[in-house]
Amino acid sequence: MIKPSRLGHLVIRVRDLDRSEKFYTQVLGLEVKDRAGDSMVFFRSNPDVDHDLAIMKISSDAPPPEPDRVGLYHFAYELGSIEEIKDAYQVVQDKGVRVAGFGDHGNTKGLYILDPDGIEIELYAEAPECEGTPLQEILTGIAV
Residue 120 in contact with residue 132, Cβ under 8 Å? Predict the structure, then answer.
Protein backbone atom coordinates (compact mmCIF):
# COMPACT_ATOMS: atom_id res chain seq x y z
CA MET A 1 0.00 0.00 0.00
CA ILE A 2 1.24 3.49 -0.85
CA LYS A 3 1.11 5.96 2.06
CA PRO A 4 1.63 9.58 0.90
CA SER A 5 2.48 12.10 3.60
CA ARG A 6 0.54 14.96 1.97
CA LEU A 7 -0.61 16.37 -1.36
CA GLY A 8 2.39 18.04 -2.98
CA HIS A 9 0.77 20.18 -5.66
CA LEU A 10 -2.11 20.47 -8.08
CA VAL A 11 -1.87 21.38 -11.79
CA ILE A 12 -4.91 22.79 -13.57
CA ARG A 13 -5.48 23.61 -17.22
CA VAL A 14 -6.46 27.16 -18.15
CA ARG A 15 -7.38 28.88 -21.38
CA ASP A 16 -5.51 32.17 -20.83
CA LEU A 17 -2.29 31.96 -18.81
CA ASP A 18 -1.95 35.73 -18.22
CA ARG A 19 -5.58 36.13 -17.11
CA SER A 20 -5.30 33.18 -14.74
CA GLU A 21 -1.95 34.36 -13.36
CA LYS A 22 -3.53 37.71 -12.51
CA PHE A 23 -6.42 35.95 -10.77
CA TYR A 24 -4.21 33.69 -8.68
CA THR A 25 -1.83 36.49 -7.70
CA GLN A 26 -4.18 39.48 -7.40
CA VAL A 27 -7.25 37.73 -5.95
CA LEU A 28 -5.79 34.77 -4.04
CA GLY A 29 -2.47 36.42 -3.24
CA LEU A 30 -0.35 33.49 -4.38
CA GLU A 31 3.32 34.08 -5.17
CA VAL A 32 4.73 33.14 -8.57
CA LYS A 33 7.54 30.70 -7.84
CA ASP A 34 8.60 29.75 -11.36
CA ARG A 35 7.60 29.55 -15.01
CA ALA A 36 7.99 27.05 -17.81
CA GLY A 37 8.19 29.35 -20.80
CA ASP A 38 4.78 30.61 -21.84
CA SER A 39 3.01 27.35 -21.04
CA MET A 40 3.04 27.04 -17.22
CA VAL A 41 3.18 29.15 -14.07
CA PHE A 42 3.98 27.68 -10.65
CA PHE A 43 2.57 29.30 -7.49
CA ARG A 44 3.01 28.89 -3.78
CA SER A 45 0.75 29.96 -0.97
CA ASN A 46 3.51 30.01 1.62
CA PRO A 47 7.31 29.83 1.76
CA ASP A 48 7.26 26.34 3.30
CA VAL A 49 6.54 24.74 -0.09
CA ASP A 50 8.26 24.88 -3.45
CA HIS A 51 4.88 25.21 -5.15
CA ASP A 52 1.39 23.99 -4.36
CA LEU A 53 -0.43 25.01 -7.55
CA ALA A 54 0.52 25.25 -11.20
CA ILE A 55 -1.49 26.41 -14.18
CA MET A 56 -0.93 25.03 -17.65
CA LYS A 57 -2.05 26.80 -20.80
CA ILE A 58 -4.29 24.95 -23.22
CA SER A 59 -6.36 26.12 -26.19
CA SER A 60 -8.38 29.29 -25.75
CA ASP A 61 -11.44 27.49 -27.12
CA ALA A 62 -11.22 24.52 -24.73
CA PRO A 63 -14.60 23.61 -23.19
CA PRO A 64 -15.25 24.74 -19.60
CA PRO A 65 -15.44 22.41 -16.59
CA GLU A 66 -18.65 20.40 -16.56
CA PRO A 67 -20.44 19.43 -13.34
CA ASP A 68 -21.64 16.09 -14.75
CA ARG A 69 -18.23 14.77 -15.82
CA VAL A 70 -15.60 12.89 -13.91
CA GLY A 71 -12.80 15.17 -12.74
CA LEU A 72 -11.98 17.88 -10.28
CA TYR A 73 -14.89 19.26 -8.25
CA HIS A 74 -12.89 21.88 -6.36
CA PHE A 75 -9.68 22.44 -4.48
CA ALA A 76 -9.34 24.35 -1.23
CA TYR A 77 -7.06 26.81 0.52
CA GLU A 78 -7.21 27.10 4.28
CA LEU A 79 -7.48 30.55 5.79
CA GLY A 80 -6.67 31.45 9.38
CA SER A 81 -10.06 32.54 10.71
CA ILE A 82 -13.63 33.57 9.96
CA GLU A 83 -12.31 37.14 9.77
CA GLU A 84 -10.06 36.11 6.89
CA ILE A 85 -13.06 34.59 5.13
CA LYS A 86 -14.90 37.89 5.59
CA ASP A 87 -11.90 39.74 4.13
CA ALA A 88 -11.74 37.25 1.25
CA TYR A 89 -15.43 37.79 0.54
CA GLN A 90 -14.83 41.53 0.33
CA VAL A 91 -11.96 40.99 -2.14
CA VAL A 92 -14.19 38.69 -4.19
CA GLN A 93 -16.93 41.31 -4.26
CA ASP A 94 -14.51 44.14 -5.10
CA LYS A 95 -12.89 42.19 -7.96
CA GLY A 96 -16.11 40.82 -9.44
CA VAL A 97 -15.20 37.18 -8.81
CA ARG A 98 -18.09 34.74 -9.19
CA VAL A 99 -19.28 33.12 -5.96
CA ALA A 100 -20.26 29.46 -6.40
CA GLY A 101 -21.64 28.94 -2.91
CA PHE A 102 -21.28 28.98 0.84
CA GLY A 103 -20.39 25.92 2.88
CA ASP A 104 -21.12 25.01 6.46
CA HIS A 105 -19.27 21.90 7.55
CA GLY A 106 -19.67 21.66 11.30
CA ASN A 107 -16.99 23.85 12.80
CA THR A 108 -15.60 24.92 9.42
CA LYS A 109 -16.97 27.47 6.97
CA GLY A 110 -16.15 27.58 3.26
CA LEU A 111 -16.57 30.25 0.61
CA TYR A 112 -16.68 28.73 -2.87
CA ILE A 113 -15.53 30.88 -5.79
CA LEU A 114 -14.81 30.34 -9.48
CA ASP A 115 -11.58 31.19 -11.25
CA PRO A 116 -11.74 32.77 -14.73
CA ASP A 117 -12.15 29.32 -16.34
CA GLY A 118 -14.90 28.22 -13.98
CA ILE A 119 -12.70 26.03 -11.77
CA GLU A 120 -14.14 25.97 -8.27
CA ILE A 121 -11.97 26.95 -5.30
CA GLU A 122 -12.95 26.72 -1.65
CA LEU A 123 -11.58 29.22 0.86
CA TYR A 124 -12.21 27.74 4.28
CA ALA A 125 -11.40 28.22 7.94
CA GLU A 126 -12.18 26.59 11.22
CA ALA A 127 -14.80 28.73 12.94
CA PRO A 128 -16.33 26.83 15.86
CA GLU A 129 -17.60 30.12 17.27
CA CYS A 130 -19.91 30.42 14.24
CA GLU A 131 -21.10 26.81 14.06
CA GLY A 132 -24.80 27.67 14.38
CA THR A 133 -24.81 30.52 11.85
CA PRO A 134 -24.75 29.90 8.07
CA LEU A 135 -21.74 31.42 6.31
CA GLN A 136 -23.98 33.13 3.76
CA GLU A 137 -25.71 34.98 6.59
CA ILE A 138 -22.36 35.93 8.16
CA LEU A 139 -21.04 37.33 4.89
CA THR A 140 -24.14 38.93 3.38
CA GLY A 141 -26.20 39.76 6.46
CA ILE A 142 -29.16 37.99 4.86
CA ALA A 143 -30.76 35.21 6.90
CA VAL A 144 -31.04 31.94 5.01
Answer: no
